[in-house]
Design brief:
It contains six helices and 16 strands. It has 223 residues and is an alpha/beta fold. The strands form four sheets. A seven-stranded mixed sheet has the order 3-2-1-4-7-15-16, with helices on both faces. The two termini are 26 Å apart.
Length: 223
């Protein structure tokens, strides 16, 4: 199966975790787009969605699914999102789509995180994929030096020759060269650095379930 077919497979499988009559938390990215398309088939059986990005909001509304502001609702029963990497404990690297801050907010508002990925995203130790970090622009060079002190190489993410600007009006540093053996500690430490908005390690808001797309079908991992 192609990677696109695997994404479709896990996107459809995630429908089993959507609670009828409730609002569902929806993430961002190419795999989540497959889930949003599948969600449209049951849009009359849910109250709507809380979205983690402008792009997902547009896709949801384009398919006739109501989107609520996170402040308008209470706890969500489930948040469904992809990941750039996931380890054996359900900790993840996220932010390849630059939506990590809002993703973390919606994940924290949800009682259950269901991660949908293909098997190429499964790793033993986080860090093969560069860690995205949303930062306040004036702090980017100082933060790059802090990552260098721990062995990381931080590069400012650019788009069309200019620094990429997130939905929150901030910049992204992508940090390569790290092996994150203690994701919880790493996330807690980096989040305290002045100028960091959010680090793209999800250990405090880790996955409870991972739907892993494989050539043999969808494998369900529980954490």
């Amino acid at each position: 199966m192609t990677q696109d077919e695997l994404k479709t497979l896990v996107g459809q499988a995630a429908l089993h975790y959507v609670v009828p009559g409730e609002i569902v938390g929806v993430g961002t990215g190419s795999t989540v787009n497959k889930f949003i398309d599948a969600l449209a088939t049951m849009k009359d059986r849910i109250a709507g969605a809380v979205s983690s990005s402008d792009a997902s909001t547009q896709r949801l509304r384009g398919l006739g699914i109501s989107v609520f502001d996170a402040n308008e609702v209470g706890d969500l029963p489930v948040y469904i999102d992809g990941a750039d990497e996931i380890d054996g404990a359900g900790c993840m690297i996220k932010g390849g789509g630059a939506a990590l801050t809002r993703e973390k907010i919606v994940a924290a508002q949800s009682r259950r995180f269901v991660c949908i990925v293909d098997e190429s995203k499964q790793v033993q130790v986080l860090g093969r994929f560069p860690v995205p970090v949303e930062v306040i622009p004036m702090a980017s060079q100082r933060l790059a030096r802090q990552f260098a002190a721990m062995g990381g190489i931080a590069r400012l993410r650019v788009k069309d020759g200019q620094p990429l600007v997130t939905d929150n009006g901030q910049h992204i540093l992508d940090v390569a060269g790290l092996a994150i053996s203690d994701p919880l500690r790493f996330e807690s430490e980096v989040n305290q650095w002045p100028g960091v908005v959010t680090v793209g390690v999800f250990a405090h808001q880790k996955a409870a379930v991972c739907l892993l797309g494989t050539a043999a079908g969808v494998k369900t991992l529980l954490f």
